[in-house]
Amino acid sequence: MLEELHIRDVGVIDDVTVQFGPGLTVVTGETGAGKTMVVQSLRLLMGARADSDQVRRGAKAALVEGRIAPPPPGSADWVDDGEDELVVAREVAAGGRGRARIGGRMAPASALEALVGGVVELHGQSDSARLAEPALQRELLDRSGGPRLSAALAAYREAYQEWRAAEAELAALQGSERDRAREVDRLQFELGEIDEVTPVAGEEETLDADLARLEHAEALIDAARTAAAAVTDDGGARDGLGIAVAGLRQVAGTDPQLDALHDRAEGLAAEVQDLALELSAYAGDLELDPERLDQLRDRRMALSRLTRKYGIDAAAVAAYAEEARARLISLQSGDERREALAARVGDLAARVGERAAALRRERTAAGRRLAKAVDGHLGELAMTAARMTVAVETADPGPTGADKVTFLLAANLGEPALPLGKAASGGERSRVALAVRLALADADDTSVLVFDEVDAGIGGATALAVGRKLARLARGRQVLCVTHLAQLAAFADAHVVVSKSTAGGRTRADVVALGEDERVVELSRMLSGAADSEVAARHAAELRASALASVGAPAPAGAPAGSDQVGVVER
């Protein structure tokens, strides 16, 4: 329940605090007194779009605060343990920027919409006109359908989203056929280039070594032969070491130190012998091979071409080839993928059709129940001959179903049922809108309902019927109603009046909760335009007593209850 509303610097309002109780509360006052600003403030608190024009002239910011008790569902993250109420606030700066707070903490306006919008539902004059819109009619029908319709709608949406996603994927595959073919050709060409060379990781080092050896083969052979000759020819190192070894052998065993040098000399002589043999073998094995040299050069150039295009070395080129081969296989299997996806699209389309039909059955049944409930309310709103029909027709599948929902009304006996926008006058449309809202109130559990002059275009006995309806609707919930009709206001559990006065050179608007005697005076003003008319006062008192009796409420006490000022608005 919305227990308290604080408004500061919104439109003509300077600063006002209003407390609300359960049941039906009416807000009345002369035109221009500021009643609309109360409704606008509630809209801000419900997360509606903020406009700097809503800030009172000369103020830095507008502020709206509300106290809701108990905390609404979904507010656990914003309420401390043990708290039995939730305070929400919306501030709109004159410069255009705004802030929202929930439980004293900053929050996005969307969080206000989710929390407060789940508790408070506001119906204005524009809602009656919007009732002719097909989208709103479908939304209202779905709200009236209960859990079965909600489940059918959720199942349909799931299938519809899968179907549309599969269709989009298939269209992307079909639309990129030429791109796919071009990519296949490119990959095949690249793999052909790579496979022709078949690079091996690390082979650049081997190639470079072989190339260096063959390119300098003649010089290498000459150097090896010269070195071998220097070691083996007469007077070479081998002969000198032989003489040294023979001389040292003659005194072997005489001095250990010299024996060690003899051993080294023998080792060097053997090493020189091996070196001479290996140099000769190297010179003999190394050949001048121009054909092999050309092959190695061609191979090295081929590797260089690949590394310029596909990777920094042979290993990177081989890795690229592996990835390209996998991509090519995937692309070449595209036909199979398209066929499988096309089959899936067909299956999903069939599922969408089945679930759309199930949703249509639920909507048709809900439409009959809603029309029956609305007819009952219309009968009590002085439209006894009116009959409403909810037509549910097949349409192309969309996000909300494959149905076209139309509210039809036969306003008078013998007249054909026509779309609501054509069949009803302004006053009749207001009553139909109210009847729909009353029927929906029985189907959902919104705890606070706000009606902003939904009584436009009606009066007399119809106004009494509307008042009686709202009073019954307020049992077990909170209903706030801005009205100009005394017949409706007479049914209220609480009556708040907004009035203007002038003091200190400024116009002030006082918001006052009326006691029983003051209510009769206000009802008298609303009936006759004059608060001091004795005839109007008697009529107002009778109206009030009759209204209370018609809803089973006790008659007003004979003693005046007194008044209680709950807020002041400066203008």
How would you sum up the global shape?
elongated
Q: How much is the radius of gyration in Å? A: 48 Å
**Widest sheet, order of strands:** 7-6-5-4-1-2-16-15-14-3-13-12-8
Low-confidence stretches: 558-571
Number of DSSP strand runs: 16
Instruction: Determine the mean pLDDT.
Output: 83
Major sheet description: 13 strands, mixed
Secondary-structure class: alpha+beta
- Whole-Å distance between the termini? 29 Å
- Helical residues, percent: 55-70%
**DSSP summary: helix tally:** 19
**Strand-residue fraction?**
15-25%
Question: Can you describe what's shown?
Answer:
This protein has 571 residues and is α+β, with helices and mostly antiparallel strands. It has a domain at 203-312. The protein is built from 19 helices and 16 strands. The protein has helices spanning 35-45, 109-117, 125-130, 134-144, 146-175, 177-197, 203-215, 217-232, 237-249, 256-285, 290-310, 314-332, 334-380, 420-423, 426-443, 460-473, 486-489, 516-528, 534-550; strands spanning 2-10, 13-19, 23-28, 61-68, 86-93, 98-102, 105-107, 120-123, 387-398, 401-410, 418-419, 448-452, 478-482, 494-503, 506-513, 564-570. Strand 9 (387-398) and strand 10 (401-410) form a beta hairpin. Helix 8 runs antiparallel to helix 10 (256-285). The two termini are 29 Å apart.
